[in-house]
Amino acid sequence: MLYTAYGQDMALLNTGAKKVAVAVLLVVGLLLPFVLEDDLLRLLATGAVLAIGAIGLNLVTGYAGQVSLGHAFFLGIGAYTAAVVSGDPEDDQLYGLGITFLPVWLIAGGLAAAAVGFVVAPLASRLRGLYLAIVTLGLVFLGTHVWNEWDAVTGGIGVGRPAADPVLFGVDLSRRTEVFSADQQLYLLMTALLVVFALLGRNIARSAIGRSFAAVRDRDIAAEVTGVDVRKVKRRAFVISGFYAGCAGALLYSITGYLDPSSFGLLVSVQFVAMVLIGGVSTISGSIMGAFFIALLPRLTRELPEYLPFLSSSATETPNVFQVETLLYGLLIVAFLLLEPRGLFGLWVRIRNYWKAWPFSY
User: Fold this and answer.
1) Residues contacting residue 137 through CB under 8 Å, at least 6 positions apart
2) Contact (Cβ atoms closer than 8 angstroms) between residue 47 and residue 222
């Protein structure tokens, strides 16, 4: 049971328990479409896409130590790029290229966001901490202005535009087929893409790139002394994070089929920060846990009016469940930072270590 080669220690699944756990998760994930109802499958598909975006934010914030509050901006770039690439070219009101093949508009959305991340990175690489957070926060407000004014791309306030069509090999996955419902198809697609992006993120984290991220995060001056190009590492982190966010934005609204300029506000960035902090900083698994936690949270809060009559389910009345959701994001961030800084992944590690050492306390 001991490692006899360096490659064994560095393997992605370096223990039998990890291999079994991953196999069980994959089997359960494949069986869920035949067990759960369509509304739950759509919610899980949304959670899978949010997890892709959370992995991207964790790479730049958790692994590279660059605080970013502008994730919603990069999501918007990816979403609108995909919508333009997939849009109807005969529409006189909106830009469209008519390329509905999913890999094309997905990669285009990711590359567009990565390109903007490359442009922003030189400015961000000169800053750190609170100053960097303010700069990235400004991107959200800049993006909001652009989305509101650029009607040919976004459709305008209150109007919006259709999102990218998830067409794969001639099959529109947003429409029911003879075998699967639309929600079953979208769930399987988003789950498969999550596995791909998670494996990519995990390999980035354990590669030389990931180690340079950690060096800059822990002590950038010491990293520079040892030969790490700090500015290059920061730029690389923003580009990779932008690509993940762009892909997540492109996929997220292909589920709902509709895009609105108001969809990329500050609250979206706060939600992604909450996913990273609640799930666990500097862990790919934690990003996935946190994303599904935040995705399922509204489903739970919608049930509160049945048990708390003073809460309203209408956004026009006060107090309502939507205000409770906003408060919960802040409260959960504070609670996890104070009580369990390693997030849900840290709780899992504690439970795992307890049973590994049981019945001994050490």
Assistant:
1) 69, 70, 266, 269
2) no
Q: Which residue has the higher pLDDT, 273 or 122?
A: 273
Please give the biggest Cα pair distance in the chain. Answer: 71
**AA letter at 158:** G
Structure tokens at 272: 């992604």
What single-letter amino acid sits at 290? G
- 258-259/171-172 β-pairing: unpaired
- In terms of Cα–Cα distance, which of 200, 277, 182, 180 is closest to 241? 200
Burial per residue of 16-46, b for 16 or more beta-carbon CB atoms within 10 angstroms, e otherwise: eeeeeeeeeeeeebeebbeebeeeebbbbbb
Alpha-carbon distance of 299 to 293, in angstroms, equals: 10
**DSSP 3-state assignment of 13?**
coil
- 320, HSE (Cβ side, Cα atoms, 13 Å): 8
Residue 118, number of CB atoms within 10 A of its CB: 15
Contact 183, 42 (CB under 8 A): yes
Query: Rounded distance, CA 69 to CA 83, Å?
Result: 24
pLDDT, position 1: 61
- How far apart are the C-alpha atoms of 132 and 126, rounded to whole Å? 9
Residue 250's nearest CA partner among 214, 137, 122, 242 is 242
Secondary structure (DSSP) of 98-156: ---BHHHHHHHHHHHHHHHHHHHHHHHTT--HHHHHHHHHHHHHHHHHHHHH-HHHH--
Q: Are 88 and 98 in contact (CB under 8 A)?
A: yes
User: CA 97 to CA 95: how far, in whole Å?
Assistant: 7
Give pLDDT, residue 361.
66
Residue 92 has pLDDT above 90, yes or no: no
Cα four-point dihedral sign 328, 331, 335, 341:
positive
97-128: per-residue pLDDT in tens?
988 899 999 999 999 999 999 998 887 778 77
